[in-house]
Amino acid sequence: MFEKATDEATWSEMYARLCRMMEQISANVQDSGIKNSEGKPIAGEEYYAAQKAKRQGLGLIKFIGELFSLQMLTERIMHECIKKLLGNVENPEEEEIESLCKLLTTVGQILDTPKARAHMAVYFSRMKELCKSPNVNS
């Protein structure tokens, strides 16, 4: 936040107020869906670090998709990324599912060609399995 406040002087007052709000709530904020290495819900500063990592991961996936859209990455690479994200159908990580959705939203229409129809059918079949899995959060 310091970097943003110093880089965007116009918004200094807003960033200062946001710091004040964070000071009052940061220790109480938690997300039962994000767990630490011991399986306990994370809270406070850990929560913000985990959210930042998640946001950056989704940003990376979107960036990869945009590179493909500009023909800077090959179709084969996109299929490998999708296969990796669909690799654990029995007990998938929530971040993998979100990344898969972000990637397919970005590049799915471009990838869905007659040449890749068989691949797409397998992807959608696996996604249907994921929807039925009790291990997947709604």
TrEMBL record:
One of its GO terms (molecular function) is translation initiation factor activity. The keyword Hydrolase does not apply. Residues 1-134 form the MIF4G domain. One of its GO terms (cellular component) is eukaryotic translation initiation factor 4F complex. It comes from the Eukaryota. The keyword Protein biosynthesis applies. Keywords: Initiation factor, Protein biosynthesis. Belongs to the eukaryotic initiation factor 4G family. This is MIF4G domain-containing protein. It comes from Grifola frondosa.
